[in-house]
Specification:
With about 150 residues, this protein is mostly beta strands. The chain has two helices and six strands; from the N terminus they run E-H-H-E-E-E-E-E.
Length: about 150
C-alpha cells in the first residue's frame, strides 16, 4: 500500500508500511555509530542549516555533508517528528533495547517528540541528544518528518 501508516500507539513496529521512526531509532540513525555532537560532525556548519548559517530560510535537502551512514540533515534544516509521545522522564525507566516510547504524554497531553535542529534555531537545538515535545497539532515551516519502514 502507498498509504502512510503510523503504527499503533503502543507498538510502532506493528506496521506493514511506512511510519515515523521511534525516538530511539531516530537517535541511532543520527549517531550512525559515532559519539559526535551533531549528526556527522562536531562542526555544526558542516552538516546542518541552523539559525547561525541559514539566512533565515530552509535549504534544499542534502546540501550539507551526510553522517557516517549517508543520512542528510538530521541535525538541521527542519526538526523531525518521531512516533513517541513526549514524557520528560521516560528514558530514566525505559527498556534498554529498542524502547517503543511512552503511551502517554507528560507533563503536556497530546505532545510528541521532535528531534534534530532547524534553520531558525540556535546550535544547541541541533545536538543529537536534544529532544523537545510539541503539541501533535502544532504546525510550522521548521518541522518535517523522516519516514522509516519496518522490514517484514
Amino acid at each position: 500500500s502507498s498509504r502512510i501508516k503510523s503504527g499503533s500507539e503502543t507498538d510502532p513496529y506493528d506496521c506493514a508500511g511506512y511510519r515515523m521512526p521511534t525516538e530511539a531509532e531516530w537517535e541511532y540513525a543520527a549517531r550512525a555509530g559515532t559519539e559526535l555532537q551533531y549528526a556527522g560532525s562536531n562542526s555544526l556548519g558542516d552538516v546542518a542549516w541552523y539559525g547561525g548559517n541559514s539566512g533565515g530560510k530552509r535549504h534544499p535537502v542534502a546540501s550539507k555533508d551526510p553522517n557516517a551512514w549517508g543520512l542528510y540533515d538530521m541535525s538541521g534544516n527542519v526538526r523531525e517528528w518521531v512516533h513517541d509521545r513526549y514524557a520528560e522522564s521516560y528514558y530514566s525507566s525505559s527498556p534498554g533495547s529498542d524502547p517503543a516510547g511512552p503511551t502517554s504524554s507528560s507533563p503536556y497531553p497530546s505532545s510528541r517528540v521532535v528531534r534534530g535542529g532547524a534553520w531558525k534555531f540556535t546550535a544547541g537545538y541541533a545536538r543529537v541528544a536534544n529532544r523537545l515535545g510539541f503539541s501533535d497539532t502544532y504546525r510550522g515551516n521548521f518541522l518535517g518528518v523522516r519516514l522509516v519502514r519496518t522490514v517484514p
